[in-house]
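User: Fold this; tokens only.

Assistant: Input:
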Amino acid sequence: MKVVIAHDYLTQRGGAERVVLELARAFPEASILTSMYAPDVTFPEFRDLHVTTLALDRFGSFRRDPRRALPFLGEAFRRHYVDADLVLASSSGFAHQVRSRGPKVVYCHNPPRWLHQWEDYSIGLGLAERLAFRALRRRLLTTDRRGAREAAGYVANSNNVAQRIRSAYGIEPVVIHPPRGLDPDGPTMPVPGLRPGFLLTVGRPRGYKRTDLLLETVARMPDQTLVTVGSRPDPRWPANIQQLRDIPDAQLRWLYRSASALLACSREDFGLTPVEAFGFGTPVGATPEGGYLETCLPGLTGDWLDAGSVASMEAGVRALLDRHWDPAAIRQHGEKWTAEVFRRNLTQTVAGILARQ
């Protein structure tokens, strides 16, 4: 069976890209189709796979920031016809619009945020960007919904996203949580200059990630150190904020294992970093919203944080650090999100969808 995995773009190291790698392990015969591919800034494992790109890949400015290509990405996938027996579309934006000879199954990380959760996506955008997106919205919505309704089946990465799929497309999806992505048993490498016992947050620089709130909180806690992974370096923050980017998985494992706690206050569709932290027995302070409600168990895996203000966030972080947590119990809880569980659930679900065709 000829299988193609379609993904929006491979230009970063995020949870969705880790899912693509697991899809490729579940279907080892598959090739990967994406709009743009930047091997130096995404996971190195993609170099071992057969990756093809759309014509947009020729433009370096798009690879550096795919949001610049937003007006063209949907149409580029829509015009591309895949000659395959099965297409697995890993999509939070455009890949679900690809056309194919065989059935198309969509693993949906979220319906496009700029179309369906504009309030979250627009945080941090300038006036010109807001106006441009609003002008494009009607046309983009039309092709977005058409691509979704052409799918043979939809898989949501969380109950949270499943509800958004129902609202956006009128489609009833199957829910399969993504795997934790980072195997806790892999190689480990210390980060020079850091001592264990710091607070950790991991996430790309987006307004809805609320990284600035965490930075403001820990800036008021000179007795603590916060390590951020993935955010843009900013010289304004004091010395107890350590900002890292583009670190290898071996160092990320060391950070998860050496942290006193992971802090997660994004408005996440699923939220991969808590389940990654669970694999290392690290407690998590998270806000009670989005996908965190499906994975975090207060009192077992950590505590809820109140993002209403810097003061309430600080109080929650200090309470989290004052409690004793059982690393073994946290690790056991994290076994629900292993790669093996994900691949088994996914292949069974895809087989069931194909059997109905």
